[in-house]
Amino acid sequence: MSVPVVLIVDDSLTVRMDLHEAFEADGFITILCATGTEARAAFENGGFDVAVLDVLLPDADGVELLRELRARPGGERTVTVLLSSEAEVADRLHGLRTGADEYVGKPYDAGYVVGRCRQLLGDGEVPVSSATTVLIIDDSVTFREQLRELLEPEGYAVITAASGEEGLRTAADRRPQAVIVDGIMPGIDGATVIRRMRLDPALRDTPCLLMTAADDYATEVQMLEAGADAFVRKQQDLAVVLAKLAAVVRTSAERLPFEAIGSLHGPGKVLTVTRERHRLAELGDALREDGYDVVAADNGDDALDLLAAQPVDCIVLGLDDGARDTCMRIKEVPQIGATPLVMTGDHDDALLDCLAAGADDYVRWADGTQALRAHVHAQIRRKQSLDESRRIREELMRRELDAAGERAARQLAETRAALVEELEWRNRELEAFSGSVSHDLRGPLQIISSFAETLLDEDEEPLGPQGRHRIQRIHAAAGRMADLVESLLLLARASRGDLRRQKFDMTMTTWQVIGEVEARDPSRKVDFTVAPDMTADADEGLVRVILENLINNAFKFTRKVEHAVIDIGWTGPADNPRYHIRDNGAGFPAGKAIELFRPFARLHSADEFPGTGIGLTTVHRAVERHGGEIHAEGENGRGATFWFTLPPTR
To answer: How far apart are CA 295 and CA 287, in angstroms?
Structure first.
């Protein structure tokens, strides 16, 4: 990953250098500006990923600088933090609504500012493919560098911290794969660092090695009870560090890759709400000692406005006349209501009322700020543990759903393969049946028809009236049976086989079909009109079957019309036309169009309009094979129109 660059704009040299040291220690490159003019020059040069802007500058307004930065090409992607001594909620809301990603009040915690910028950049986690990252926490620069020189040649990426507090913030920010911590340091010791990591849902599985100069059994037990995975005595050969580090990293490598949650020691924000200004200041001073960014509001309306614009990790609500109502209003808002809320007051008897209003905890003022800090810390830890459990459940459920989907897809594929195999077998059976129909049934029918004709034409032994009538019926039935067999074979061919698509002249094909239809009954005069330049991208053989059936149908049902007219044409876009065949014949009952395409369905008597009842079913199958649609419109005695489409292959 490239080294991130931060632009720091503040008129205070102390603030600039404090932030410069904090960002530089965390691996950033810094650009320092003292005025708005210098900041605008830096905007022109560009090349920074983060901008920390002071709101009050001698020659500029930080919010206006933010607006100018956002208006520049690429400026909308720059992580921007406003830094201000303006404590009013309205000022904070103005900055956030202008486009700031974060608004930090002064006095600030440099660790919070750096950690929050890392969080907004999305650099909090080391990529899975990178080297194993080890965090070394030790107050001795010499020992830290000794360990760095030992570990880096072995392929480890090393980051360092000089105190337990700094180590916890760095661990929350960088999420190392292992931690080596000194047992005795100024401030919190190594055992306390490990205990606090074990209480943090985001860090508790991180393997920890604790270094100690002690050589007694009691110290060893104390270190292991603190949660250390292993310990190393400083008087031992440093090669032991390598061996034990490799062992704890190896045994902790098998983890479920759940989405990382926020760390308890990472950048945190607390909203304090009370009408008593001196208590707001007291709360802010106490919570900043734990590295929190503290936002102060003196009424419930300001608190709700701020929560709508920017989430916080915990809310501390002072008990006054409107506090219970404010608590209930906050807890009623979706998402915001899940934020831990701690109420503070003067009396023990307020505990039950505060909890009934929706508060998660209650602390007496008399217990002191240390107790309040502990309760806030505990509530944030509880919320993070609940979030972690929920994410794990959701992740496991998602994986189970994915696995179930894969199983279902596999079963579907197996079932489909079995169905395809069965369908292929049935198609082979159908082909065999079609062959049998073609040869075995046609032969006897031809014999029956031929002998019936011979008997009817016999002159030497003339038939009586009754015998002739019976032979005529046999001959007619054999003819109808032959027509039915032919129709069934056409239907079978329309339902199977590969489509041989090509672009062809449909107008010419239509006139060829019309010529064949007229040749069967030359005595009839029908006025045919066919649209010129009509084309189709389809199987020409199947399209001929469609045209033969539909034109034959129109020819047949216009038989009783004095001036029969049949029109064949198209409408719609040229690349996907909608064809029609329209006649002015007998038509059919309105609302019965769907029945026309069912096998053997008839809306007119066979005596009036003879036929097999298979033709339109064959047309329907042929159109469907092309991925098209067909429907009919008509009324009794007012003709019929058949519409169909033949969509081209995409």
So the answer is: 10
CA distance 636 to 640: 9
Place of tokens 């079978």: 492
With beta carbons less than 8 A apart as the criterion, state whether 388 and 201 touch.
yes
Residue 493: predicted pLDDT? 64
Alpha carbon distance 564, 640 (integer Å): 12
- Three-state helix/strand/coil letters over 223-285: HHHHCCCEEEECCCCCHHHHHHHHHHHHHCCCCCCCCCCCCCCCCEEEEEECCCHHHHHHHHH
- In what helix (H) or strand (E) does residue 514 lie, and over which residues does it extend? helix 506-520
> Which DSSP string corresponds to 373-430?
HHHHHHHHHHHHHHHHHHHHHHHHHHHHHHHHHHHHHHHHHHHHHHHHHHHHHHHHHH
Kindly tell me if the per-residue pLDDT of 125 is higher than 70: no
At 387-439, the pLDDT tens digits run 877 887 888 888 888 888 899 989 999 999 999 888 878 767 766 666 666 55
Mean predicted confidence (pLDDT) in 564-570: 93
Give the span between the Cα atoms of 559 and 608, in whole angstroms.
10
- Whether the per-residue pLDDT at 124 is higher than 50: the answer is no
Length of the chain: 650
At residue 522, the pLDDT reads 86
Helices 239-251, 141-151: axis angle to 10 degrees equals 70
Contact (Cβ atoms closer than 8 angstroms) between residue 580 and residue 551: no
CB 327 within 8 A of CB 302: no
Q: Strands (DSSP E) along 29-99, which ranges?
A: 29-33, 50-54, 56-57, 60-61, 79-84
Q: Residue 246 contacts by C-beta under 8 Å, 6 or more apart in sequence?
A: none
Is the predicted pLDDT of residue 620 greater than 80, yes or no? yes
pTM over 0.85: no
**Amino acid symbol at 356:** A
